[in-house]
Hints:
The chain is α/β, with parallel strands linked by helices. It has one domain (11-277): Dihydropteroate synthase-like (TIM Barrel). The chain contains 9 helices and 8 strands. An 8-stranded parallel β-sheet has the order 6-5-4-3-2-1-8-7. The chain is globular and about 40 Å long.
Amino acid sequence: MGKRQPTNRVRVMGVINTTPDSFSDGGQFDTTDKALRYAMQLIDDGVDILDIGGESTRPGSQNVDASEELARTIPLIQAIRKESDVQISIDTNKPVVMQQAVAEGANLINSIWALRQDDVLAVAAQSGAAVCLMHMQGTPETMQQNPCYDDVVSEVIEYLRQRIEAAVEAGIARENIIVDPGFGFGKTLQHNLLLLKSLAQLKALDVPLLVGMSRKSMIGTILNKPLDQRLYGSISTAVIAAMQGADIIRVHDVAQTIDALAIVDAVNGVQTQQREMQ
Length: 278
C-alpha cells in the first residue's frame, strides 16, 4: 500500500513521549534513534502533527529539570527536521524548552498549564509559534485526588476563554491559539463523559479545538481493559469528538485513527454538500 494521506477536515496529532514514565509509552522511545524511527513511521502513516514530550504529566508524575527535558526532546526535533517538514508540537511548560524547541523547528507549544506560570506567556508570544491552551484543575501531582466542579462544562469553557484573552493580551495572535478541555486532567470519569457529550459547546470559543483521550483511564474504566487493549475505545472517543467539531485529535494509534476519521470526514462532507445545494 502507498503512503496514506491525512484527512483534510480533522487533523491527527501523534504522541511521541521521550520519557521513562509516561502512562502509555514510557521507556519505548528513550533514545533519539528509536524515537526518530517511530516519528518517520507516523509520518508515513499520514500524521499531521507530531507532539513531542520530555516530561510525563500522568497523574502523580514528578517534574524533571530543564536540562534533562532538553536532552530528551531537542535532538529528536533536530533529527526530524533533517528528514521532514511535518508540523511539530513541543509538549512543555518550561520557557527554555519552548525557546529552543521553536528555534529548532517546532511549530506549536502545547501547554497543559495554559501558559499560566510566570513569564511563560511572554516567552510563547516572542517565539511566534502557535499555542495550545489546556484546562487542568490542580497539578499533575494532585489533580486526580478529588476533582470537583459545580458545572464542569461551563467552568472549563470560562477558564479557556480567560486564557485565550490572556494570550491575546500578551501578543499571541488569536489565529495561533488552540484550546484543549484536558480530558483526565483533574476530572472524574463523570466529568470526562459530560465534557465529551457537550464538546460542541466549546466551539463557541471560536478557536480550533484539540482533544486527547487516547488510551486514558476513562476508557480503561468503562471497558475494564488494560492500556494495550484500549484501541477500539480510543477510536470511539476520537470519532465522537470529531463528529462534535474537534479539529485536532491527539492519539497514540495514528493509522487506525486516520481510517476512522476518514469516515467522519466523508459524512461531514456530504452534510456540507447538502447545505450548499439548498
